[in-house]
Specification:
Helix 4 packs parallel to helix 5, helix 6 runs parallel beside helix 7 and helix 7 packs across helix 9. The chain contains nine helices and 16 strands. With 310 residues, it is of the alpha/beta class. The model has no long low-confidence stretch (mean pLDDT 98). The longest helix is centred in the last third of the chain and has 16 residues. It has an eight-stranded parallel beta sheet with strand order 3-16-15-10-9-8-7-4. It starts with a strand and ends in a 15-residue tail after the last helix. Bound molecules: 3,4-dihydroxybenzoic acid (DHB). The site of 3,4-dihydroxybenzoic acid has 17 residues, from loops.
Length: 310
């Protein structure tokens, strides 16, 4: 069975969209929910009020499907819009409500409203948006990360996880895991885009996106190895009851399989969903099923975390 669980939430499929892709409008959210190959949906990271985001062009696909660069700047319809969506929606699929306040206070205010609401899904606190000019990625500041989680868990009782940026140093894996293990987190989602890459158009010698002089978050094929390292390193270090959502560089069923080998419970698709559209989920699940069949596995439990070292 290609299924997974986080606390009391059961997922009939392990794939879903990555926050930011196909989830800004109710129609897009409905499209992800309606797929027969998604196990859940995550909403575009919300801020308290609607945001238009950064100037365009703000998203670009590299040649040969190497990956994408974006600096969207948190365009979203505002917290109330997504709260309205989740409270109207009748569905058996779990919904992840993503929030990305521009300050600790914004995040705590939104968490208070989620706590007080009748929302019965999971909440993803995004500590890793790289694209708002002047706003650092919170989870690169270990003190700030511990501070917001301390204040949040002083009142928050619903299933809460965090979306992390990629880390690139073993000491940083140790440090973030030690902090996260202090809290009753339901899950950790790794990775967000690799922040502040730079892509150049060789025809024109120009950057390819307008915001931040061309700097933006990288996704797709080129981030896969970094994503796998983060999934593996965190699975090794986090408490067993903190589930892992693996995100980054998934374009084939083999990529999904690799995330699971590293320890992912669920796997999200961002860039390739943007490139290919909603049909990506059927293709990936079919490719994953073929790999499992060929290897003689009948359950992802036989694969999850079973990466071999030499
Ligand atoms: C945006 C990008 C992110 O990687 C993120 O986590 C949140 C928002 C954005 O540019 O909209």
């Amino acid at each position: 069975q290609l299924t997974a669980a986080i606390q009391n939430f059961n997922f009939d499929h392990i794939l879903l969209n990555a926050a930011g892709v196909m989830c800004q409008t109710k129609e897009e959210l409905d499209t992800v929910l309606a797929s027969n190959y998604t196990g859940a949906v995550v909403t575009k990271s919300a801020t308290p009020a609607l945001r238009e985001g950064n100037p365009t062009p703000r998203y670009y696909e590299m040649a040969q499907n190497l990956g994408t660069i974006n600096s969207m700047g948190l365009p979203n319809a505002g917290f109330d819009y997504y709260m309205d969506y989740v409270s109207q929606k009748q569905t058996d699929k779990p919904i992840f409500f993503s929030i990305a306040g521009l300050s600790k206070q914004d995040n705590l205010d939104m968490l208070r409203r989620l706590e007080a609401s009748d929302f019965g899904g999971l909440i993803e606190l995004n500590l890793s948006c790289p694209n708002v000019p002047g706003k650092p990625q919170t989870a690169y500041d270990f003190e700030a990360t511990e501070a917001i989680l301390t204040e949040a868990f002083a009142f928050f009782t619903k299933p809460l996880g965090v979306k992390l940026p990629p880390y690139f140093d073993i000491v940083h894996f140790d440090m973030i895991a030690a902090i996260l293990n202090k809290f009753p987190l339901a899950f950790v989602n790794t990775i967000n885009s690799i922040g502040n890459g730079l892509v150049i158009d060789p025809e024109t010698d120009t950057v390819v996106i307008k915001p931040k002089a061309g700097f933006g978050g990288l996704g797709g094929t080129i981030v896969k190895a970094t994503a796998l390292a983060n999934v593996r390193a965190l699975r090794d270090r986090l408490r067993d009851d903190i589930k892992i959502i693996g995100t980054g560089g998934v374009t084939t069923g083999r990529d999904v399989y690799d995330h699971v080998l590293c320890g992912a419970d669920l796997v999200e698709v961002g860039s390739q969903l943007a490139v290919e559209g909603i049909g990506v989920f059927e293709r990936l699940e079919t490719e994953l099923a073929a790999i499992l069949a060929e290897k003689g596995f009948t359950s992802l439990d036989q694969v999850r975390g079973q990466l071999k070292t030499i």
